[in-house]
Structures are given as structure tokens and as C-alpha cells.
Backbone:
């Protein structure tokens, strides 16, 4: 009812015209306004928000110019509003979940580039998530993504045979609490565990140096910090590809582990993990009983409270805003403020930054969904960054891996996490 | 128009315009040839792609989307990456007698990009490169598949502007602008795309490539390449365009004024432009639209007419423009309202959400842009508002002046309403359009300023151009494209609804 009143309020300018109409027409208009939509909605309620999908599908595609997938694939079929239109046809039963249609629904890296341009403030990837959940319930998830889901369920990480804890080389060491074994950063500091550092699958397995830097910085600041003895994947990839029950299972596991750690604050290097704890877990009915912060924000706090004293680092760098950090967590200023605290470091801006940043290509598990296109998106973003500097700083292991992978051919580029840069300035 | 119910493996929809009806062996032959020209991955006959390309942004096609109807089903989608491939596809289409419909980003609102006889949708998006920005000549050479916003962002990044900023800039291409003679919000200073156009390369309907000479002006007979402006793909496929650009403006000043009378606001603009002053953006909203767009934020506009101005360019020039327009507004009973309303306009000018909000609520809504000379402006405005408001079921009929010239104005009308009992949405929509176009033609206005003709408006083209003009255009079409393969059903081929 509130929504309907809001709608009438929003279109108050029609009221003058409306008041001049005969009663029968007035009644019909108001009735249409409030009820007509029902006949265009599917009878069966699924996971998708079909009302929103329809709104998106009826838009002239005002966000299309900033869609990184469309810029590579260049077909209407994967343009944001057309994907929503196809999703609407699927949800209303006009089209079956054919392999081609399903593929189109998965061709989105959920980077949220669409949102700044959307009059409805939609993120198309978020709208499509419910559609993917419906596709999963129809048993039509593409085979390679089904295998990915099985891998995560089997390994509890996104890597086959992957590690789930930080070893000593990351600067962490074991720490026993009264309930479970945890791992803490190593110094002579007296430890409790006010802070839980959640590294994430990618940092643990592919970029342990990020964990090392973050933990080392916390040690220097005298922060009492622990890590989990066995860290499961946060579950985001499962949610991305449409498996909401499985996501919830992972959410419950990690939320419980966080609660048992007793930490008041969870610090994540991966923006996606932070978004999961702050937004997606509660959305799935799973509460995280701690403040959740991304490492850039947390480290800035340590600098501001003078627990950390940044040093100097010469050179011209470019900062790449990770999609989830800049748009979902709205932390575009904090990383820049942190970098500004480092002496002599010169920071240049790429053409597209902050909330208008461009995806590294790996958002929304897209490197698994469509690795070929994902790689080309990475190339496009790298070109934008390298127009400014070959020394890239970012704050997301996913972006770092994307850029590192693209640089394997040798293009003079170096990529660092913001924690690594801060530590380097102090050493 | 057919309504073939298609029932297959759970797919269930009607098709509004019949397909090519070519026999299966011919379709297979065309497919093989397309693949040999473009490669397997750049040709599709998948159902999901055909549906993706079945419509543009014509409001009737939106209505059909809700009603489980597809506007038109192409046989193929083809993605060329160079002029030679376009030429080969057009030659192939002639050989097999199959239509070719050029497609940019489908933001047209008249149905120009809808395949009415099936055929090959020639998606130009792979031809989307900036070929040259020439600083000395202030010339841009660009391919037709280039998105408008990406183009303008790139130019601004490099210190230039094309300044063609239609509301669709984020979802339209250079090729589409040429095809329908687009106009942007900054048109009073920078002109329409017609004014920005310098030369082009195009594939003619027989597959031959024509390339016009890049020159500021010439006197070498009729300018053949200008036939492509507004041709909506019926005369050829544009493969490259040269456009004039400007250095990015140094200064921008925003101003707004409110008036009690529409006539005073129009007179302000007429007299301002008459002095040789060209603000980049000039917009006048009638009473209803002033309240619709501004009342929630500026109570001073209650029951008023608002004029908003954006002046940009060299600082001294902008200051002069501001001074002259201010004096003219004050002399015509205008009251200054500062830059607030213009800031508001900047913030909301791309919020295209009415269709998505209203269509599923069975409220029929559309816009109609027409133009006329100053001496006829009041007559055209009054005639069209009266005609639209007179159609049973219409609740609002309003307009703003969106583009201004030394000789006249473009009015951009909006209508909205609910079909009366016993009338469906499509019928109601057509009735309002019939009334509006009839009123426009009687009042002596031009029936389109920048949206083009497409399926919807071509039925009035003969009356718009007159017998002689229409026959001349038809003769050119018939001579250039005797098989009628290029974008059928539009302009001279679109007399039927």
C-alpha cells in the first residue's frame, strides 16, 4: 500500500489533469495504475523480481554504453535491458530456458557499471541473480558452472585441492582459544582477538603476500588479530551462479565461525567477502555479529588514530577502484586517503574511477562463467589504467589476479594491493 | 500484419510482422554464404538473438512485449567488421532477394529498425572505431557503430566535443543519428547532426561503395551523400562518417527565467537568436511540463512557463550571451530564477523511465516532435495540444520547445492516457497519433524534427513531402534499390500502417 501511495505522490503532477476527468475515466485510470500490472506478471512466484526485470527490460538500455560485457561481445542479446527482456520472457513462460537464453542470462559480470546510469537505481547483475536462481531450480545451470558449484561444495574453497588457512609464511601463527584453534599474527604483542582477518580464497591460495602485509601492518599497530583455522569460501560464487540454498549453507558456516572467534570486527582484503558479510548474508537471513570492514578502510583508521605511521614511496601510481568496493561498499575516498598518507607517492587518476570505475573482468565469478570475454574485459581496463601509469594499486585480490594474468605476456606492468604498498612504504 | 501464433518447444508468442517466408533451402544457402563472408561466430540464426533484434524502442513494440508478441523476426543477425564485408552481404542479399536492415543500438522510437519482412539484421556494432581526430581541421572520422556517449566521452577526454547530445546518447550510435537526422540538447549552438555532417562512405543497395570527398563546402552539383541523412537505411549502409568537432568549451553559464505567457518566452528566444546569440541549450516548458519537471523543487514555477538556457564556449562570448539573453528575457516580462532549475535539468535529463513505469500499468504514453517557423509556432502548439487532448481517453497533452533556430522551433509534445472502454491500447495509441499528425499537417508544421519516420510515421510522408517530393524520393529508391531489399516498410515503402 505504501508503495502505491508513493507512486501516486510521485506522479502528483497528473492530479490536476486527473481532477478534470469524468468519474468513470478517473476510476479506470487509478484502477489501471494500481492493478493492471498484475496481468503481466507470472502466476508462479519465483526468485526473480519480475516487476524490476520488466522495468529494466522496457528501458531503452540507457546504461549499455558502460557495460563491459557488451563492449566485448557487441550483440544486443547481452545488452543489459535485452537480457532483462529475455529474462522477463523466460519468467512469464514465453520462452523456454534454452541453452542460448541461459547463456545470455549468465553473460553479466555483476560489476554494477549500469547502476550510476539507471533511473531506477538497478544493478542488472543483482536483478539477474534471482533469474539464475530460477534457472537453477529448473536444473538448467550450464554444465561448467554446475561443476564449479560441486567443487566449492566439496573443497569449501574455489580451488581444487586449495588451502583454507593461512600458513606461517603469511605472517600468521597458531593461537588457541577456549573453544577452537585460531591463528594469530606473530609478535610479542599480547593477543586477544578483537579483530578477525578474513583473507578469502584468492588471497589464501594465490596472493598470500596480501595477507602477510595486512597482518604485519596490524601487528605494527598492536592490533589483537586472529584468523580462522579453516576458512571456507564466503559463498559468493555459489550465489553468483544461482545456488541460493548452498550459498546460505556457506553463509551459516562462516557466520558461526565469526561468532565463535569472538571478534568484534571482521577485516576483509576481498571486497566481495565484505559485501557478503554486510549485505548478502543478512539478505539470506544470516546475521554476522561483528562490524565488517574492508582492509583499506580499516588501515586508514589505524593511520588516522596514529597507530600506523606510513613511510615514503616514490613513484607515479594509478589506483583502480574495485567495483564492489567503490560501488557496493561506497569506499572510493578511503583508499585514496590512505595512499595520500604515504610520503612522495604520486597518485594519478584513470579516466574512469570511483563509482564510475570499470570492471577488471572478474566480477561476479565471470572469469569462471565466460573466461574468454572476462580476459578481454581485463585487457580493456588495463589499457585505461596503463594510459596513466604502469604501476597499479588496487584493493581486491580478484582484480590483482586479473591484471597479473593479463601481464604474464610482459607489458611492464606491476600490480600491488594497497596493504602491500602501505607496508612497503614503512620498510 | 499477421499474428502467427508460434508454438514450439514451450516457446509461445505471436509475431506482428510476417517474416521473409523464404524456402528452407534458400535460407540454408544464405546462411552458408554469410558464414563464408563473416565467419561462423559473426552470423546467428538462433531464436534468442532473433528476439533480441526483433524490435527497437517504438512504444507499440513495448506494448507487444507485454502482450507476448514479437514485432518482427529476422532470419539472421550478421556482424560485419569492415566495408568490404558490408558490401558482400548487400550483394548476397540482392542475389537471394532477402532484406537487409542496418541496426545500431535500437533506440529509435518509430520502428525504423524493425524487420517487417524478416531478413538480415546488419548489426554495425563491430564497426565502432574512431578513425581520426584531426585537430587542425576540427574533423572527426568515425565508424557508424560507435556509441554516442563513448564517442563524446573520448572526445572530451582529448579536449574536444561533437556536442550532439540527444537524450538517447547513451544508447544510440553515430549511424543511427545519420539515419534519422538526430538532434541533441545542445542544438541551438552546435546544430543537428545534419549540420555536423561533412562526408561519408556508404555501401549502395547494389553493393557498390561510394565515398564522398571531405571538404568544408563545395559546388559540385547536388550533394549526393546528404541523401543518406534521414534515409533510415533504405538507400544504403553508411560505413564511415566525417563530422565537424569543436574544442571543448572553456566556460559554461546556466540561467533560467519564468514567464506568465508562453508567447513571452518564445519571443525572448526569438529575439535573442535574432541578435546572433546562440545559447547551446534552450528549452521552454509549457505550464504542465514546467510543473511536472520543476515544481517539486522550485515553488516559484507554479502556474508559470520556464525557459532554461545553457551558454558555453569562450568566456567573453558566453558572458555576452548571458547579458543579451538576460536583457531580452527581462524585456519580455521574464523573471530570473537562477541556475537551480538548469542544474536540476542536468541531473534528470537522461531519466527515461516513463515508458517502463506506465506501459505495464496500461497507461499509454508517447512523445511527438514537430517543427515550424516562428510565425506559426503558437498556431502549431495550440492546434496539436487541442487535437491530442480531444481524443477520448487522453489525460495529458503538453509540450516543451526543445530546439530553436533563427527561423523557428521544435515542439516536443507528450501525451498520456488510458484507452476508453472497448478500445485497446494499440488502437488508442494510433488514434492520438492520427489526431496529432493531422493537426500538424493542417497547421503547416513538419511532422518530424529528429525522431524520423520508421513504420509509425511513414504513412504521412506523402502528405509531408507533397506528391512531387514523395515521387522524387521514391524514384531514387526504386532506381538505387530496384529489388527493395534495404529496410523495407519505411519512408516511401511505409505507406501502410
Residues:
Amino acid at each position: 500500500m505504501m508503495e502505491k501511495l508513493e507512486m501516486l505522490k510521485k506522479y502528483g503532477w497528473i492530479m490536476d489533469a486527473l481532477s478534470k476527468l469524468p468519474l468513470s475515466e478517473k476510476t479506470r485510470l487509478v484502477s489501471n495504475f494500481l492493478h493492471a500490472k498484475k496481468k503481466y506478471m507470472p502466476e508462479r512466484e519465483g526468485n526473480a523480481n519480475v516487476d524490476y526485470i520488466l522495468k529494466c527490460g522496457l528501458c531503452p538500455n540507457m546504461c549499455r554504453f558502460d557495460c563491459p560485457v557488451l563492449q566485448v561481445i557487441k550483440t544486443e542479446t547481452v545488452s543489459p535491458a535485452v537480457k532483462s527482456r529475455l529474462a522477463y520472457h523466460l519468467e512469464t513462460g514465453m520462452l523456454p530456458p534454452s541453452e542460448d537464453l541461459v547463456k545470455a542470462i549468465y553473460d553479466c559480470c555483476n560489476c554494477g557499471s549500469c547502476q550510476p546510469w539507471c533511473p531506477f537505481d538497478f544493478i542488472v547483475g543483482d536483478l539477474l541473480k534471482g533469474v539464475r536462481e530460477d534457472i537453477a531450480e529448473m536444473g538448467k545451470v550450464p554444465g561448467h558452472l554446475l561443476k564449479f558449484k560441486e567443487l566449492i561444495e566439496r573443497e569449501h574453497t574455489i580451488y581444487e585441492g586449495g588451502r583454507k588457512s593461512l600458513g606461517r609464511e603469511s605472517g600468521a601463527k597458531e593461537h588457541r582459544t577456549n573453544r577452537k584453534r585460531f591463528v594469530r599474527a606473530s609478535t610479542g604483542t599480547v593477543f586477544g582477538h578483537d579483530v578477525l582477518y578474513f583473507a578469502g580464497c584468492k588471497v589464501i591460495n594465490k596472493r598470500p603476500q596480501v595477507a602477510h602485509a595486512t597482518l604485519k601492518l596490524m601487528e605494527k599497530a598492536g592490533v589483537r588479530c586472529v584468523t580462522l583455522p579453516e576458512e571456507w569460501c564466503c559463498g559468493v560464487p555459489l550465489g553468483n551462479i544461482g545456488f541460493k540454498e548452498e550459498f546460505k549453507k556457506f553463509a551459516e558456516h562462516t557466520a558461526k565461525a565469526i561468532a565463535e572467534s569472538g571478534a568484534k570486527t571482521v577485516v576483509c582484503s576481498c571486497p566481495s567477502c565484505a559485501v557478503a558479510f554486510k549485505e548478502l548474508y543478512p539478505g539470506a537471513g544470516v546475521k554476522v555479529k561483528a562490524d565488517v570492514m574492508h582492509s583499506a578502510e580499516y588501515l586508514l583508521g589505524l593511520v588516522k588514530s596514529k597507530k600506523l605511521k606510513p613511510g615514503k614511496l616514490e613513484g607515479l601510481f594509478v589506483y583502480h577502484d574495485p567495483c564492489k568496493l567503490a560501488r557496493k561498499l561506497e569506499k572510493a575516498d578511503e583508499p585514496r586517503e590512505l595512499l595520500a598518507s604515504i610520503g612522495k607517492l604520486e597518485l594519478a587518476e584513470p579516466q574512469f574511477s570511483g563509482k564510475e570505475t570499470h570492471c577488471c573482468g572478474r566480477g561476479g565469478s565471470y572469469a569462471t562463467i565466460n573466461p574468454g570475454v572476462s580476459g578481454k574485459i581485463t585487457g580493456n581496463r588495463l589499457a585505461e589504467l596503463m594510459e596513466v601509469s604502469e604501476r597499479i594499486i588496487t584493493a581486491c585480490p580478484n582484480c590483482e589476479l586479473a591484471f597479473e594474468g593479463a601481464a604474464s605476456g610482459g607489458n611492464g606492468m606491476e600490480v600491488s594491493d594497497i596493504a602491500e604498498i602501505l607496508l612497503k612504504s614503512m620498510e | 500484419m499477421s499474428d502467427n501464433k508460434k508454438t514450439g518447444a514451450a516457446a509461445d508468442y505471436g509475431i506482428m510482422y510476417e517474416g521473409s517466408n523464404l524456402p528452407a533451402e534458400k535460407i540454408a544457402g544464405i546462411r552458408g554464404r554469410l558464414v563464408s563472408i563473416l565467419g561462423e561466430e559473426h552470423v546467428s540464426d538462433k531464436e534468442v538473438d532473433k528476439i533480441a533484434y526483433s524490435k527497437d524502442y517504438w512504444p507499440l513494440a513495448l506494448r507487444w512485449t507485454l502482450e507476448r508478441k514479437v514485432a518482427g523476426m529476422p532470419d539472421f543477425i550478421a556482424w560485419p567488421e569492415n566495408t568490404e564485408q558490408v558490401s558482400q552481404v548487400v550483394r548476397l542479399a540482392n542475389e537471394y532477394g532477402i532484406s537487409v536492415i542496418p541496426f545500431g543500438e535500437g533506440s529509435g522510437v518509430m520502428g525504423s529498425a524493425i524487420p517487417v519482412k524478416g531478413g538480415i539484421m546488419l548489426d554495425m556494432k563491430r564497426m565502432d572505431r574512431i578513425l581520426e581526430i584531426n585537430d587542425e581541421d576540427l574533423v572527426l572520422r568515425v565508424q557508424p557503430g560507435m556509441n554516442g556517449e563513448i564517442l563524446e566521452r573520448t572526445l572530451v577526454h582529448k579536449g574536444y566535443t561533437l556536442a550532439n547530445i540527444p537524450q538517447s546518447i547513451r544508447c544510440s550510435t553515430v549511424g543511427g543519428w545519420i539515419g534519422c537526422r538526430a538532434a541533441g540538447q545542445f542544438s541551438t549552438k552546435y546544430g543537428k547532426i545534419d549540420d555536423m555532417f561533412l562526408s561519408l562512405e556508404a555501401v549502395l543497395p547494389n553493393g557498390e561503395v561510394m565515398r564522398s570527398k571531405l571538404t568544408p563546402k563545395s559546388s559540385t552539383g547536388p550533394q549526393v551523400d546528404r541523401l543518406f541523412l534521414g534515409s533510415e537505411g533504405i538507400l544504403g549502409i553508411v560505413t564511415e562518417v566525417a563530422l565537424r568537432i569543436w574544442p571543448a568549451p572553456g566556460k559554461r553559464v546556466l540561467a533560467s527565467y519564468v514567464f506568465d505567457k508562453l508567447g513571452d518566452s518564445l519571443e525572448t528566444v526569438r529575439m535573442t537568436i535574432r541578435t546572433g546569440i546562440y545559447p547551446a541549450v534552450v528549452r521552454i516548458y509549457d505550464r504542465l511540463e514546467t510543473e511536472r519537471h520543476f515544481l517539486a523543487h522550485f515553488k516559484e514555477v507554479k502556474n508559470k512557463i520556464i525557459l532554461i538556457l545553457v551558454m558555453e564556449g569562450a568566456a567573453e562570448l558566453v558572458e555576452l550571451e548571458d547579458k543579451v539573453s538576460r536583457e531580452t528575457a527581462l524585456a519580455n516580462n521574464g523573471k530570473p530564477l537562477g541556475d537551480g532549475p538548469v542544474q536540476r535539468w542536468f541531473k534528470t535529463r537522461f531519466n527515461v523511465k516513463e515508458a517502463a513505469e506506465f506501459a505495464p500499468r496500461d497507461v499509454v504514453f508517447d512523445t511527438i516532435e514537430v517543427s515550424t517557423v516562428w510565425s506559426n509556432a503558437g498556431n502549431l502548439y495550440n492546434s496539436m495540444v487541442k487535437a491530442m487532448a480531444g481524443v477520448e481517453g487522453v489525460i495529458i497533452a503538453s509540450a516543451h520547445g526543445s530546439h530553436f533556430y533563427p527561423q523557428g522551433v521544435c515542439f516536443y509534445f507528450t501525451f498520456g492516457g488510458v484507452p476508453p472502454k472497448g478500445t485497446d491500447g494499440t488502437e488508442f495509441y494510433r488514434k492520438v497519433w492520427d489526431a496529432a499528425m493531422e493537426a500538424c499537417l493542417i497547421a503547416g508544421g513538419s511532422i518530424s524534427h529528429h525522431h524520423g519516420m520508421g513504420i509509425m510515421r511513414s504513412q504521412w510522408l506523402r502528405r509531408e513531402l507533397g506528391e512531387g517530393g514523395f515521387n522524387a524520393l521514391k524514384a531514387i529508391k526504386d532506381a538505387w534499390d530496384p529489388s527493395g531489399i534495404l529496410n523495407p516498410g519505411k519512408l516511401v515503402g511505409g505507406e501502410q500502417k
